[in-house]
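Example record used in the benchmark description.
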Amino acid sequence: MLLFGYLKKKPIAKLNASYERFEEIISLKVPKESIAYLVDLWKQEPFSFTIAKSRKTCLGNYTFRNKQHLITVNGDSNIYSFLITLVHEIAHQHVTIKYYPKRNRNILPHGIEWKNCFSELISPLLTNEVFPEEILEILKLHMKNPAASSVRDINLVKVLKKYSEKEIENSTILEDLQSGSFFVFNKQIYKKIEDRRTRTLVELAKTKKKFTILSHAEVNLLE
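Model output (structure tokens):
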């Protein structure tokens, strides 16, 4: 996801210099079969890289500020989600390098230029050596028209969630709950009312006010 702003939380690890340092930082964060390719991408177009603490607003972030390319990825992502997000942000960098000098205002953050670049950059990684078959199958479909964020693809969210190292007890996807179920989301208790196209109508238990939440949001079921 492309966001413009400063990193508010203290980073877990930060890179400003060499490809060796980049390789060291990502070595435990991505599938080992993808490391050499990522290092090659860094050598082609270096960038400052930060592994950030968990952020609810995004999985990753690319900014171009003071002629510097800055990329962050949340450190709590599993290795497959981390890899997808990192390539997503590198695609933003490549689009900026190609189009920024021309000051082309018709280039949208997640427009066709970014979609094509993202698909091209991730293509060499779409193999069974890098991704498990069940992720690979869904990821290939996702990359036919990649969304601004992978969390907008409910099928991709579900399959990536299976590989999270740290599963929260009673954690599930909102869409999978039955209507009338109570759940916790952002430390508030809600009641599920009904699913809509991409969002779910819910009721805040404390005030009875109704809201909509993304249907693929991760929530904690209350027994």
